[in-house]
């Protein structure tokens, strides 16, 4: 897994509309909360996404953008965003390359890992939180770290 202090690997993935999103387009402009999660519409992932939604203004106030990544295709992300009124970016990593590049492994070898990276404006990883079973804690951890970033 990538470590605190590492440069966040750049990537390009399709968003909900199939448009290509590049991480490097945000570097230098905002801090980034990059969270990997198993799948849209599952109970834990829905709780996590809705908690990010409910706290989105706090993330914006902290100068951060929230980006979620799973293996779901863009069309499924679009449905998930519409159903739960999610204001942030969801990206499709269908082949798992970005997940692998960040070192996010499966839980028990089966379930895609739930890991959140807080990346500063310079593109450096400042915090990593890994918890499959406590999806809401990803939000409180990220906000705690963001308030101390320049």
List the keywords.
two-stranded antiparallel ribbon; 150 residues; alpha/beta; 5-stranded mixed sheet; globular; Glutaredoxin
Rounded radius of gyration (Å): 14 Å
Mean pLDDT: 96
Unreliable stretches: none
Count of DSSP H/I helices: 5
Q: Helix/strand-derived class?
A: alpha/beta
Number of strands: 9
Broad CATH class: Alpha Beta
Order of helices and strands: EEEHHEHEHEEEEH
Biggest β-sheet: strands ordered side by side in the sheet: 5-4-3-8-9
When the domains are counted, the total is 1
Largest sheet: 5 strands, mixed
Q: In the CATH scheme, what's the topology name? A: Glutaredoxin
Please name the fourth-level CATH homologous superfamily.
Glutaredoxin
Coarse shape: globular
- The rounded distance between the terminal residues' Cα atoms is 25 Å
| Gross CATH architecture | 3-Layer(aba) Sandwich
Strand content is: 25-35%
Which percent range fits the helix content? 25-40%
């Amino acid at each position: 897994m990538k470590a605190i202090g590492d440069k966040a690997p750049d990537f390009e993935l399709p968003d909900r509309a199939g448009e290509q999103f590049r991480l490097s387009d945000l570097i230098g402009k905002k801090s980034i909360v990059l969270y990997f999660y198993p799948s849209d519409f599952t109970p834990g992932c829905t709780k996590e996404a809705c908690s990010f939604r409910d706290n989105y203004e706090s993330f914006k106030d902290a100068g951060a953008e929230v980006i979620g990544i799973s293996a779901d295709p863009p069309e499924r992300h679009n449905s998930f965003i519409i159903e739960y009124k999610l204001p942030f970016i969801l990206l499709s990593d269908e082949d798992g390359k970005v997940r692998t590049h960040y070192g996010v492994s499966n839980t028990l070898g089966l379930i895609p890992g739930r890991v959140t990276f807080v990346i500063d404006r310079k593109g450096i990883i400042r915090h990593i939180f890994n918890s499959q079973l406590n999806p809401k804690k990803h939000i409180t951890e990220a906000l705690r770290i963001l308030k101390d970033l320049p």
